[in-house]
Design brief:
It is a single chain. This protein has 5 helices and 2 strands. Helices cover 43% and strands 3% of the residues. The N and C termini lie far apart (72 Å). The protein is mainly α. The chain has a domain of 63 residues.
Amino acid sequence: MNTGRPIEIRIVLNDEQRSELRRLARTAIGRVSERAHFVLLSDQGKSVPEIGAVMGYSAQAVYPWLARYQQQGVAGLYDEPRSGRPPNAPHLAAIVQTQTGQPPECHLAGDNIPGARGIGDHWFAGDWVPGIRGR
């Protein structure tokens, strides 16, 4: 039974294309970045099932994006417009853009939890240790 899908898609990039996709993979938000990684992994010789396994997708989800890249280039990695009501909160895009440029906050596990053990906690081995954090 022929599903119309090729058995394998292999993409070979030139230096300019590779550079553009690496930039896109670093700067694009969400799925576009992942799709750029699909293409870069294909260029490295990975098969579609291997790309899916590495990226957490099925091979059936990877195939269409590689095919779109072959046909449309980088433009094919972006979502097409969808039907329905357009978003009415344009300020959300600015918030997402700001957040993606900031490093994540990091907290130690067990920090400030009574009974937790570890360096920097207020409680150590079940005994209160005053003054560690100026309390």
